[in-house]
Amino acid sequence: MNTDYRSRWDAIGIVASIACAVHCVLLPILFTTLTLCGIELLENVYLEIVTILISMCAGSWALIKGCRKHHNRTLLLFFVAGLTCMVTGNLLANDYAEIVCKLTGSILIIIAHLKNVKHCKHR
User: Fold this and answer.
1) 92, 101 contact by CB (below 8 A)
2) In angstroms, rounded to a whole number, what is the distance separating the alpha carbons of residues 81 and 110?
3) Cα angle vertex 120, ends 54, 106, to 5°?
4) For 69-119, how does the pLDDT look when each residue is reduced to its tens digit (9 = 90+)?
């Protein structure tokens, strides 16, 4: 498997994490306005589950393949910590704590992917 293929999976993981972060920021801001218009897409539990699953699958694939190449297992810790934060955010009742957890999780996952791309290019 070549590095470009792995980089695409890292890119998918980054985009999914950014989408989750944007979703988490936009939900509280646009919640009242969009519900007045009858749009409840941002409050869809299935959208959150799909976003987390895409992040988890693409990220796992890219990071495991990358770690086999560069042997930097710290990136897996960033990734698992990020996923844990994202899932924990879904379980919290406090909106502020939920946003902080999800944004922190997204940032940790993005860092893991960016470092994975960097380490793969140097090997």
Assistant:
1) yes
2) 12
3) 35
4) 888 889 999 999 998 998 898 888 887 888 889 889 888 988 988 888 888
* Dist CA 73 CA 94 (whole Å): 33
Q: Which residue has the tokens 């070549």?
A: 2
pTM (global) more than 0.90: no
Q: Strands, E, within 1-123: which ranges?
A: none
* Number of Cβ atoms within 10 Å of the Cβ of 5: 11
Say how far apart CA 94 and CA 82 lie, in whole Å: 19
In order, the DSSP letters of 55-78 are HHHHHHHHHHHHHHHH--THHHHH
pLDDT tens for residues 8-17? 777 877 887 7
* 18-55 burial: b if 16+ Cβ within 10 Å, else e: eebbebbeebeeeeeebeeeeeeebeeeeebeebbebb
The answer to whether 23 and 44 are in contact (CB under 8 A) is no
